[in-house]
Amino acid sequence: MIHFGMPEFYVQVAKRLRDCGLVVAEGWDRPSSTGYAYMLAARITGQRGAKALVSQDIDYASLGIPVIWPDGLGQLARHKRGLGVLGWLDVVLFTPILTVSMVLGGRDWLLRARMEINDNTKARLRFGSRILIDERDAKLLAALEKIYQQHRDEDVTVAVVFGAGHIAAVVRGLNSRYGYRGISGEWLSVIDF
């Protein structure tokens, strides 16, 4: 999942999630502060297609299916709407870094190949990788293993709605533990330039 995109993308994602039996979601049931920071920086720097973008904001409570939050944040105050204090802190700290990166990268920053993530990608940050990626990947895989143990005799579709940087670890983890592998996929347009 990408934390920002066209509104139609998130409508399609929510529609597909309703067809699942269970959702494993990142963070909490609030808008994505990371997505908001990317969107804001893209608009500030005049990135191609930025005006049409929105930050990720899936209302999981409205889906009508169980949602598991491996990050341990649960349904933090969906009724309060908005980003909350931690979300705004994320935006305040992350937006300037993204803005400088986009200014240096030019108007086509969003089109650069470094945004691409595949099954072999090992997500790395210059700082905070252990806390922001590795520990969260471990929590996500532990949650998926628990789901597998509880539902292995059932025919259930489980959606994993985490940032794309975490999905490679999911693919590798499910393959090494249970022999699972992707056999098909469907594309959705996230950003239309």
In spatial order, strands of the major sheet run 4-2-5
What string, H for helix and E for strand, traces the elements in order?
A: EHEHEEHHEH
Number of strands: 5
The profile of the biggest β sheet is: 3 strands, parallel
Structural class: mainly alpha
**Overall geometry:** globular
Pick out the low-confidence regions: none
The count of helical stretches stands at 5
Radius of gyration: 17 Å
Instruction: Return the average pLDDT rounded to an integer.
Output: 82
Number of domains: 1
Helix fraction, binned, reads: 40-55%
Strand-residue fraction? 5-15%
Report, as a whole number of angstroms, the end-to-end distance.
18 Å
Which short descriptors sum up this protein?
193 residues, mainly alpha, three-stranded parallel beta sheet, 5 helices, 7% strand, globular
